[in-house]
Write a structure and sequence with these properties.
With 238 residues, the chain is an alpha/beta fold. It is 45% helix and 13% strand. It starts with a strand and ends with a helix.
Length: 238
């Protein structure tokens, strides 16, 4: 199968730059004609993906890639764009990721379709698996997909085939339950809403409104008017 990889790195809030070093770690794929890797910077997006990452995925899909992988900057409580963008979400942990309480705080339990404990040859991997299983057992998965917990040692290719098999099983589950169509339908709705928001925002900021904003912002800073009053004034300005 052919694969497209969208590797997202954070943009520095200070310099505006990004390392985009993911491809360096995948040098062995450089000459593989079936693999295309595109590095992207977040450019201020706070959801764990670049703003245009889904558009890049659409292009890769149109180009005929069988499988498209997003590699996020790392998912926390608010960096959850990946759930909307992907059919299957895999949370990759390492034994050094911290205890199970931290995992719960990060919101990882809710977004994962599959857990993978990588570097499983290190101390603490089995303990982490047991803790994750205990947390999952607190939730009711009756008639629902229960995220499996897999162990891998990626640099030795151990456990990778099992991950691929589990992804295929999850895809079969989604298709069988009708969830795959639902997810993709919601993805289109979200995309249309985002495009409408962008277009309305672009039309809103006329030169006249930009000028009025610059004139009135000092009043907000001096507490002479509230931000709400300024917004209403800008809306009513023709």
């Amino acid at each position: 199968k052919t694969v497209g990889v969208i590797a997202v790195d954070p943009t520095s809030p200070f310099t505006g730059g990004a390392l985009l070093g993911d491809r360096v770690r995948m040098n062995d794929l450089t000459l593989d004609e079936g693999v295309y890797i595109r590095s992207m910077a977040t450019r201020g997006s706070l959801g764990g993906l670049a703003t245009k990452a889904q558009e890049v995925a659409d292009i890769l899909d149109a180009f005929g890639k069988d499988i498209i992988l997003y590699e996020t900057v790392g998912v926390g409580q608010s960096e959850l764009d990946i759930v909307e963008a992907a059919d299957t979400t895999i949370v990759v942990l390492v034994p050094e990721s911290g205890d199970s309480i931290q995992a719960m705080k990060a919101g990882l339990m809710e977004i994962a379709d599959i857990f993978v404990i990588n570097k499983a040859d290190r101390e603490g991997a089995e303990k982490m698996k047991i803790e994750l299983e205990m947390i999952l057992n607190l939730r009711n998965f009756e008639n629902l997909w229960k995220p499996p917990i897999l162990k891998t040692v990626a640099n030795q290719a151990q456990g990778v085939e099992k991950v691929l098999e589990t992804i295929a099983q999850h895809q079969e589950y989604l298709a069988g339950q009708g969830h795959l169509q639902e997810k993709r339908y919601q993805r289109i709705i979200d995309k249309i809403n985002a495009l409408i928001h962008e277009e309305l925002n672009r039309e809103f900021w006329t030169e006249k409104r930009k000028k009025r904003f610059e004139e009135e912002i000092q009043k907000v800073l001096k507490n002479k008017i509230t931000p709400y009053q300024l917004v209403q004034e800008l809306i009513e300005l023709k």
